[in-house]
Amino acid sequence: MPEFFTDTPLLTARFDAALRYGITHHARQLRKGTPIPYAAHLLAVASLALEMHGDEDEAIGALLHDVVEDGGGPGALAYIEEHFGANVADIVLSNSDSVTGEEEKAPWFERKRAYIAAFSHKSPGALRVSLADKLHNARSILADYRAHGDALWARFGQGKGLATRVYYRELVAAFEREAPRMGPAAAPAIDELRRTVEAITALAEERQGPDTRVSFDWG
Question: How many domains does the chain contain in total?
């Protein structure tokens, strides 16, 4: 089979610089409850964003999407805007449910509800990066739930994981509402997210019985 090439590289020195910055920021961080370097998540999210035909700004935003939320704060956001541009900074900010220190964060439910409520105001690029992030997380949750059972939920500070399952069902619904703005290349990822979340729910029902709550209360 012949290889295919572009006339000019789609990823430039900006991407290389963002990769170094993101990897350095998360250098000591591991995926929750695992020995996996956090860099694995950043690379996976960037890969998924590119597979949805995201541009270099989206790929960079994917690499940096957790820098501000995970300790970087406003200073990191300013650095990102200065070195990678306002569009990348907007993608990162749109994918951060807090820009304050851990001790100043709003309660989990309030942050997640606000994150979803803002979907209609997020750019298509920010939504694609969000989808890439949530899809990789959901894949990991399902794989680890199959391997470790309900002990998995302790990683999230939850007894039986109900809040996480509700949140991911709400995410699926939000991405489906915004699908027309995200472009046709995002459709397979949205579908996979739904199927993955449904598999998590089905596994929980086998082990715990039906969830007592299926969605956020938006009333």
Answer: 1
CA–CA separation, 179 and 210 (whole Å): 29
CA angle 62, 96, 118 (to 5 degrees): 105
The predicted structure's pLDDT at residue 3: 84
CB within 8 Å of 51: residues ≥ 6 apart = 185, 189
In a domain, 219, yes or no: no
Q: What is the pTM of this model?
A: 0.95
* Block residue for tokens 């957790």: 66
The token duo for 106 is 């709003």
Say if 189 falls within a structural domain.
yes
What average pLDDT score do residues 172-189 get?
98
Give 12-52 pLDDT, tens digit per residue.
999 999 999 999 999 999 999 999 999 999 999 999 999 99
CA distance 41 to 38: 6
Residues in the chain: 219
What Rg, from alpha-carbon coordinates, does the chain have? 17
**Tokens 């295919």 correspond to what residue?**
4
- CATH number, domain containing residue 160: 1.10.3210.10
Residue 218 lies in a domain: no
